[in-house]
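Friendly challenge for the regulars: who can give me the structure tokens for this chain first? No prize, just bragging rights.
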Amino acid sequence: MVEKSAKDYAKIIQNADLDREINPLCTNIEDMLARLDEFETVLSSVRAETNGIMANHVCSILSFSDNFEELRNRIDNLEQFVSTVSENLNEVERSVDVAEQELNITDYSIRGLLFKPLKAKLSTVDASGGAASKTNLTTEGDFQAVPIFKSDEYFGIGATDANVSGTV
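First reply, four minutes later:
Bragging rights claimed.
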């Protein structure tokens, strides 16, 4: 039985074409090694380029670090300015709403905007008195404007001089 098994294995080994079975494996391994070398080359070039870019940008970022505090302050001031303008705009809108209510404006056409306020003004002069409601008028009947920001506080002479000298 051992002899028979040995003969069978001998036939298998003799009939096996090693070149035909091993050559495709060797070819695939060589292709994989070539691709691995190409990948390694690409990776090393990417590393070299990344190092160059990092060296350039890190130096420029570090040189700009002195200006970061000024930039942060300018951004904070801009946010404060935008907040102030927003609050002022809300106040002006409320003032316009009160004025429209006082003049009984519901029609926003040219005719409504021109004639109704005149009619309302004439009717309020005749009917003095009534319930105290929100108004934009002083006790003398003059318009009282809503106080809004002053641009000199944000864009004054000192601020514009600093910007001009910084850009020249």
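Residues 164-168 have pLDDT under 50 and may be disordered. The chain has one domain: 2-102+137-167. Your move, everyone else.
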